[in-house]
Amino acid sequence: MYNGGKIVIGLLIFVGLVISPFLLKGDKATAKPDPKVDTPEILKMPVGERTCVEDKEYMKAEHMKMLNEWRDWVVRDGLNIYTSKAGKEYTMSLQNTCMKCHSNKSKFCDECHNYVGVKPYCWDCHIAPKEEG
Amino acid sequence: MGILFSFFAVVALIVVVFVGVQGANLHYLFGVIIPFAAFITFIVGIVYRVFRWGKVPVPFRIPTTGGQQTSFPWIKASRIDNPSSALGVAVRMALEVLLFRSLFRNMRSELRDGPKLSYASSKWLWLGGIAFHYTFLIILIRHMRLFFEPVPGIIKIAESLDGFFQVGAPVVYVTDVVFLGAVTFLFLRRVVIPQLRYISLAADYFPLFLIGGIGVTGVLMRYFFKTDVVGIKELTMGWITFSPVVPQGIHIIFYVHLFLVSSLLAYFPMSKLMHMAGVFLSPTRNLANTNRAELHVNPWNYPVKVHTYEEYEDDYREFMKSAGLPVEKE
Amino acid sequence: MAVQKPEELSKVVYTFPSTPWMDTPVEIKKGIFCWGNKEKSLKAVGFPNPRQWSVTDEDWKLPDNWKEIFIEGLRERVDKYRSFRLFLDICVRCGACADKCHFYIGGGDPKNMPVLRAELLRSIYRKYCTTSGKIMGKVAGARELTTSVIKELWYYAYQCTECRRCSLFCPYGIDTAEITILIRELVNLLGLNIEWIAGPVANCWKTGNHMGLLPHTIIDIVSEFKEAIYQVTGLKVDLSYNRKGAEILFVHPSGEYFDPNGNVTFMGYMMLFHEIGLDVTLSTYSSEGGNFGFFTSNEMAKRLHSKIYAEAKRLKVKWILGGECGHMWRVWHQYHNTWFGPVDYLEEPVSPITGTKFENAKSNKIVHITEFTADLIRHGKLNLDPKRNDKYVVTFHDSCNTSRAMGLFEEPRYIIKNVCNNFYEMPPQTIRENTFCCGSGSGLNASENMELRLRGALPRGNAVRHVRDKFGVNTLANICQIDRATLQTLVDYWAKGVAVRGVHELVGNALVMKGEKERTTDLRGDPLPGKEGE
User: Fold this and answer.
1) How far apart are CA C491 and CA C260, in angstroms?
2) Which end of chain B is more exposed for a tag (fewer CB within 10 A), N or C?
3) Which domains does chain B have, with CATH numbers?
């Protein structure tokens, strides 16, 4: 090796950066998100009817898009009522509809959002619900 | 030929994923084994290539000098483009690596009738290169959210800056747009500019298609198919804790994305992409112009056959004497 | 040969063959190539495969195992030069270099784009030295080595002047000069050179200079210079050769003994040395600063240049002063010290007139004449009358080697501004580090390749014509003997009415010497401004 010292230092920096996730990974590396759907409001519902405005899979993938649309429809177009695929009508409101059931923001919303490092800007305007305990 | 070959090579890679994951259900192979193998190839390959270069000596000090040399105190030397100190070299290298200094010099020449040859600054390649490399870097940093739990603040900051305009949901990343634009630009210039079309090889188009494919599948995943990012993070965290599990129900587009990334990693060390490491070792850039002030040693310097003064005098002694020149032997 | 008019020659068509470059066989064109080396030139220095051959013949009489020799040579060199291996490995073909080459700008041959010129060898390297090239072949950009490829490598290696302009713009600093140097080294293993290089190399080996001037001839030439100086100044200027115990050994390109422009530059040195009373000697044994061996192989370059330090040691001088030359300074600055150092038998150079220590030359002990003279002027040691150069409206041509392998920009300009009243720069894209080659460097200053040289000189010629038309420039100053010898022809063609001059010719004209008579002419015998009637 010629200029071996410098080359080895360079390679160590490179390898160190590339494998840094393996070395650091964070202290909750094995933790998995577990969003809770056990708020009093949800528990009040009969077991068979505990559904969101749309089915779970759809909500999981598209909730951010739906909220974005709701915002536009309500604020810009003056609409208020959302009709679900099942034909049921809901008032389009984050705070009065969504958060009514999902009153546990920290145990529900934040659980996944924090895990994947997403910071939705809902709460730039809306006031986050007060949680007990 | 190169362009079609490269295009179909990338298409073939995508087909492999569909056959392997959707057809043969090889989720573990595509989700764990191949990415690991590719990652190891990437590291070992790059280290090997750099060691291979390192084993070769730098026999001569051959900096390309881009400014005034250091000579007298009363002549202003160009300390960066023609460095004579370690600091100068470090700055020159930093400018080269971080800002593509040499490419920034680029100019276009145009020959018109007359003849009249004119020059114009031409920074498009520089701009395209900078846009491509830096957006790639930021995208890479953003992806690190999948490899740390909790996610470090710096990665969150990168992400929120990238989504600064808060357009749509999921928020559109500026880098995604610029990145795809830059890749397209780098591809189009190869196709449109005759000189480039003539010199381009399959090895030039293939990485562009591959990286373009990675970009497009990434965009599809985020904005259109809404792949289960929680599941993906469970997979990636499984890799780095060496306890990989493949969660069910991750969209095929993720496997395509992952396989293209794996291909890029494995291809990297054997390709021109090694310029990433090579630029640090370039003897025309990383040496100070101190040739006459300091001795540069060539490890394989060997004695050569010379024509000595004695032989010369023996040949021409009489001529020398007749011209009144002093001689060693009368 | 019948040369086309500039208006026609400059109608360069930048088109591309319909076939990919690998499938486009080389077409060796008259006016572009130089004659192949003679048998005796290779024999003189013990080079491989000496024989009579002709470029235009189908059979170049390569040795039987030519392929093995070439590939072995290539493998050996990628393990000896990091630059070479790296430059073969990391090019991304971004094309930034394509229109930086004077031969491509003026000629339009796609294989003269620096990137493609390098690809000619890179394709062979991939085929025989990399795994992917061995397996993937053409798809990986690899190709078979054939005699046609050898011809192509030879043809294009002698269409690159190693000026390094492309290297400046390359984002990885890939230096085509480095690749050309090594291609030439490889084809020389097969006995393929050009006579315009091989001949001077043989001369230099035996007589100490490219021109083949014998010791007494040099003395005769110098006495003519003395006479010419006497005519102009009325002073008897002396110059010693092979004198032991002098303080300084002066080495310069031998072309200055031969070429009319060089002659006058040399007279400038003589007058300067006389005026300041410098204890300097020259050598007939080491009578060449240039090094055509450098255009052949590293080893040959070292063999030829070994004479300089050897002679400095024998004559017991303290340090070495070097004249105006381009590639001589590339070799001295970037190679010499490494070949022969540490040079502990010489002393760190100090100007005996001003006491200035040449810190930047403290290890290899060689100072450039423009550094030396600029220092003299700065310290007010020279009595100069720039008005004597008033008929000259001067611009300065930066030689590639002193520019991009050294960075010698301000010293010659400082001198010119002190000895001339009218100085104008050419456009910034064509000077200093961006300078264009004269088109005849690296041993390509022959006459049979005149079309190539004219084409290569188009960018320089164009810039000269620009300042000629804009500022009335009539003098192209430079510090390179190849420039002085070749640019006149090329400038006559592209920018008529401009004369090529060495910087020390202008110094000689302006230098007011102690005890001189009132000068009426310049060093060429032309009347000085205001003395036309005398």
Assistant:
1) 16
2) C
3) 2-322 (1.20.950.20)
